[in-house]
Specification:
Strands 1-2-3-4-5-8 form a 6-stranded parallel β-sheet. It has a 6-stranded mixed β-sheet with strand order 9-14-13-12-10-11, with helices on both faces. Strands 16-24-23-18-19 form a 5-stranded mixed β-sheet, with no helix packed on it. The chain is of the alpha/beta class. Helix 2 packs across helix 16 and helix 18 crosses helix 24.
Length: 771
């Protein structure tokens, strides 16, 4: 009887061994990607689908409170056994930085281990999508740390930026990371906001060119390539002008402001360059939280810009709907966010997990919307080639990190990002000075030099300003260091040592600025906003005291936002803006101080005299121009209305002459092009780089237009006496405006063309006409 019962089972098993099961369509690389997506989607349960929409940040406590617990939890989350609310997870966000504090080899091994679990131990074998922050380099141990934000923007060199993000992409993909996010392309409009240190410029045109370069460098034309990643642009459509300059503050901006100022970088990065990653922003815009806005996440992003990638939520982004009181609970918030167009949750938020499964079963969320987002996740994974190549080469990963070329690029980027704000002839310094005093809280502080979004565990050397100076001077030079004070606090006990060092020196280099997120008392970075842009603590008192010793003083700023250093600008003979210059920042600063590198950085943002001037960007309207330039007001009652340093400003150790402006033709149709050229000559004694800037002004229009708008720039290197003709082409896109009905048009009339060294230092000007 037992034999009779078991015989069919045995025969079936033997047949299975001889006749392999038919291969699923989704596992066949010869099939079109869309067919593979639909085949896999049809096989998935609801829980498996919701699992794919969750790629949690590993730092969340839900995955454990220490490295060991999180390491184990990630294995189970990938397998689908960590929680029964959802199926196997879709991937992870910032895993390596949170738990893999070893070298690239170990990172690659663990990512391969997780992929093996996902591919071999889950029902459908869907590989994981791994995402990391990439603000200024891949944010995990053993990766190159480039200059951040305004330092890269100050280079005005899109090829340099392209190479920086190509290097970050190579280092990330080599270990098994597929997406780099927090690439902050939105214009930087309120420097009080701490996380604005992650952005590159106040100008939408410059941000747009940078956005294109980032996507081209990181993502390129084929994300299946072993040295490319998805470029995740942030924070769509913006958060850099919040109410009161506070983190997550509402963006009270008009539709015109949204489209004229905030959208251009997204148009460039998505429509032109093809970015496949976007992170929704925190704030409410015009009263609607971005995570709840189908207008923002679908109508504009998908329908207008043609975005085809994944929309990730911000950390805790679904919860914004609860504290903005448009949703009563996480469950309701998840329903609204999904409907609006959010694809992936990154914070283990209930609204996108078990509660979302319940919402579908209760008819409060649409299965069609779930399928829509799952399709997008699967398409991304197929496009990355993960179904065919889920694993990385461990040996290749081990040799990918911080190559000599990457380290040299970090140094070059830091050099090009330094802006010489003032120089009364003190710089460059001689390397054989007898004694140099290096003073200040940021002279030898590695963390403050790096900015935010850097690895938790840094395994390689960071060259501080003090170290860079000591490596650069002659053997006969004595370098004395005194901290003097902290970035915050009123403790002046270190002043006597600093002043004694200054009195005994031929020159005093005072390095001041801001504290990094993660330090004991942060003054800058995400979540650390300020009301005043003045130097904090007693730093200015330290500079004044050193200045009063009579020793010549150079001030170096290490900071993530423009600082209103009014007294320093008036009294100190040399002022150097180094921003957050990255791992080799100290060498870069020393190179500028001692003339090994002729400074070429130009401000990508306006430096105000006082935070009371905000907003203070250069492309203001005619009403402000009338008041401060031609009207009887001209200034505030207590100070000048002009900025401390204007957009585009930056000095050199050589001089440049502009001549020979040509504008051809002088008359064009609304869809025509204008060719503009000028000759630039190095009239000094040193080789140098000049950033030639082109601005336009629509002289008479149906709506108010800015007094100046950047529409072209080129960085050129010239030897002494050498000249070069710089050429620009202005197209209909450059000349267009949004009319009173928000339609983009080119209106007839005169346009003024201005070419110069900054937004204020205009050397050549002329006009053409649109008929």
């Amino acid at each position: 009887m037992i034999v009779t019962i078991l015989l069919p089972v045995i025969l079936a098993a033997l047949w299975a061994l001889q006749v392999p099961a038919e291969r699923p369509v989704y596992k066949d690389p010869a099939q079109p990607a869309e067919r593979r997506v639909e085949d896999l989607l049809a096989r998935m349960t609801l829980k498996e689908k919701v699992g794919q929409l969750n790629m949690p940040c590993v730092y969340v406590n839900s995955l454990g409170r220490d490295v060991a617990a999180k390491t184990a939890a990630c294995r189970r989350f990938a397998e689908g056994t960590f929680t029964d609310e959802i199926g196997p997870g879709g991937g992870f966000f910032t895993l390596a930085n949170t738990i893999l504090h070893q070298d690239s080899r170990r990172q690659a091994e663990y990512f391969n281990e997780l992929q093996k679990i996902a591919v071999e131990k889950t029902r459908l074998g869907i590989p994981l999508l791994q995402t990391e922050e990439g603000t200024h380099g891949t944010m995990c141990s053993d990766k190159t740390i480039f200059p951040e934000g305004l330092a890269l923007g100050s280079a005005w060199n899109v090829d340099l930026i392209r190479r920086v993000y190509a290097t970050a992409a190579m280092e990330a993909r080599a270990v098994g990371i597929h997406q780099l996010f927090t690439l902050v392309v939105e214009p930087n409009l309120d420097p009080r906001l701490g996380r604005n240190q992650e952005g590159y410029s106040e100008d939408p045109y410059l941000c747009a060119r940078i956005a294109e370069a980032i996507v081209q460098g990181a993502q390129g034309g084929n994300i299946a390539s072993p040295d490319r990643v998805v470029a995740g642009l942030c924070h769509y459509p913006g958060q850099s002008q919040p109410v009161s300059g506070l983190e997550r503050g509402a963006m009270e901006i008009s539709e015109r402001k949204l489209r004229e100022t905030f959208l251009p970088p997204w148009i460039a990065g998505i429509r032109r360059a093809g970015a496949l990653g976007v992170m929704a922003t925190y704030p409410a815009i015009d009263g609607v939280p971005a995570h709840a806005s189908s207008k923002i996440l679908t109508a504009i992003l998908r329908d207008e810009l043609g975005f085809r990638g994944l929309v990730l939520g911000e950390g805790g982004g679904i919860g914004t709907l609860v504290y903005e009181r448009v949703a009563a609970s996480q469950k309701e918030a998840g329903q609204i966010a999904l409907r609006a167009g959010l694809d992936v949750g990154i914070s283990y938020e209930a609204g996108f997990m078990g509660a979302l499964v319940e919402s579908v079963n209760e008819g409060k969320a649409s299965l069609a919307d779930i399928d829509r987002s799952v399709r997008r996740v699967l398409r991304q994974k197929f496009a990355l080639g993960l179904f065919e190549r889920p694993y990385v080469d461990v040996e290749r990963a081990a040799g990918s990190a911080r190559t000599p070329a990457a380290r040299e690029l970090a140094l070059a980027a830091a050099r090009e990002g330094i802006v010489l704000l003032k120089n009364d002839g003190l710089l460059p310094l001689r390397k054989n000075l007898r004694r140099i005093a290096v003073i200040g809280p940021n002279a030898d502080d590695k963390a403050n030099q790096l900015g935010d979004y850097v690895p938790r565990a840094i395994l390689h050397e960071i060259v501080t300003v003090l170290a860079g100076i000591r490596q650069s001077v002659s053997n006969e030079t004595t370098v004395t260091y005194a901290r003097g004070c902290d970035v915050l606090g009123d403790d002046k006990s270190g002043f006597p040592e600093a002043l004694q060092a200054a009195r005994n020196a031929d020159v005093a280099i005072v390095v001041v600025g801001e504290n990094r997120q993660g330090s004991k008392a942060p003054t800058n970075g995400e979540g650390y906003d300020v009301a005043s842009l003045d130097l904090t603590g007693v730093q200015e008192d330290l500079v004044r005291a050193v200045f009063e010793t009579g020793t010549p003083v150079v001030v170096v700023l290490i900071n993530g936002r423009p600082l209103s250093t009014r007294w320093i600008a008036e009294h100190v003979p040399a002022l150097v803006e180094a921003w957050l210059p990255g791992e080799s920042g100290g060498l870069a600063v020393a190179g500028v101080l001692f003339g090994d590198y002729n400074p070429s950085g130009r401000l990508p943002i306006t430096v105000p005299r006082h935070s009371g001037q905000l907003p203070v960007y250069y492309n203001y309207g005619p009403s402000k121009s009338y008041w401060i330039e031609r009207g009887w007001g001209r200034r505030y009652a207590d100070m000048s209305a002009a900025p401390l340093y204007e957009f585009g400003h930056g000095l050199s150790y050589t001089t440049f002459e502009y001549a020979g402006l040509r504008i051809e033709p002088k008359t064009i149709s609304p869809n025509g092009e204008v060719r503009v050229s000028a000759e630039v000559r190095n009239t000094g004694r040193l080789a140098g780089e000049e950033v030639v800037q082109l601005y336009i002004h629509d002289v008479l229009a149906s709506v108010t237009r800015p007094v100046k708008e950047l529409r072209g720039f080129e960085k050129i290197a010239l030897n002494p006496g050498e000249s070069r003709t710089v050429r620009f082409t202005l197209t209909a896109d450059d000349l267009s405006l949004l009319d009173q009905n928000l339609r983009r048009v080119v209106e007839p009339g005169a346009f003024r063309v201005m070419i110069g060294r900054s937004s204020s230092d205009i050397r050549l000007s002329g006009e053409f006409e649109v008929r």
